[in-house]
Design goal:
Blueprint (H helix, E strand, L loop, with lengths): L3 E3 L3 H11 L5 H19 L5 E8 L2 E8 L4 E7 L6 H7 L4 E2 L1 E6 L6 E7 L8 E5 L2 E2 L3 H12 L5 E8 L1 H10 L4 E7 L2 E2 L5 E2 L5 H6 L3
Parallel strand pairs: 1-11, 4-5, 4-6, 4-8, 8-10, 9-10, 10-11
Antiparallel strand pairs: 2-3, 6-7, 12-13
Bound molecules: 1-O-pyrophosphono-5-O-phosphono-alpha-D-ribofuranose (PRP) and uracil.
Length: 209
């Protein structure tokens, strides 16, 4: 069974409270998505392996640790996942970025794939899939299946808000994928939106409504 990590850090919770506010502007919402992603990335990469390295400082030798050449690919689910990419690459500048285009069919809520572009060595990389909303879990589950089909073996999912339904779906479909969220909300409404949630993340990031 995968691990579900809910971030209770005050900075994340404070920023999330502003994101949820329906009166928050597109500009501020977009900035907050990026900032929350950056803070979550810090914790979600806690298990990166390091190796010892000696560094000459102006005053002597320091015994330090550096990340042991781990290759990472950040995989936003389009569109809304794009909002989390800047924050992540600020923290992991050497990461590559692969894109998966999916949208939810409004009638069936089933994900429809329209784009898939990964770095050529994706199967050798650890993937962090990012999407602000984990609602029914259909999009995240499908995206992760596509990555597994491409040979990726180690995958994490980072979402800002998760619904219990989406978390359960992910744990059933992908018990090997740990899930990181800033909040687990109450339920989905009749059109598959997270309650209380924050509305449509893509529309709020890109100002399309
Ligand atoms: C949203 C969101 C997720 C998906 C979550 O995207 O960004 O990708 O819905 O829902 P699910 O867990 O029920 O699959 P949407 O389909 O609205 O597309 P967009 O990012 O282009 O706005
Ligand atoms: N997608 C969103 O953007 N918001 C939700 O609440 C559910 C799916």
């Amino acid at each position: 069974m995968s691990r579900v990590c809910v971030f209770d850090h005050p900075l994340i919770q404070h920023k999330l409270s502003i994101m949820r506010d329906k009166n928050t502007s597109v500009k501020e919402f977009r900035e907050l998505v990026s900032e929350v992603a950056m803070l979550m990335c810090y914790e979600a990469t806690r298990d990166l392996v390091t190796e010892p390295v000696d560094v000459e400082t102006p005053c002597g030798t320091a015994h330090c640790n550096r990340i042991a050449g781990k290759k990472i690919v950040i995989v936003p689910i389009l569109r809304a996942g794009l909002g989390m990419v800047d924050g992540m690459v600020n923290m992991i500048p050497s990461a590559k970025v692969g894109h998966i285009g999916l949208y939810r069919d409004p009638a069936t809520l089933e994900p429809v794939k329209y784009y898939f572009k990964m770095p050529p060595d994706v199967s050798e990389r650890d993937a962090i899939v990012v999407d602000p909303m984990l609602a029914t879990g259909g999009s995240a589950s499908a995206a992760i299946s596509f990555l597994k089909d491409a040979g990726v073996k180690r995958i994490k999912l980072m979402s800002i808000i998760g619904a219990p339904e989406g978390i359960a779906r992910m744990q059933k479909d992908h018990p090997d994928v740990d899930i990181y969220v800033a909040a687990e909300d109450d339920h989905l409404n009749e059109i598959g939106y997270i309650v209380p949630g924050l509305g449509d993340a893509g529309d709020r990031i890109f100002g399309t409504k």
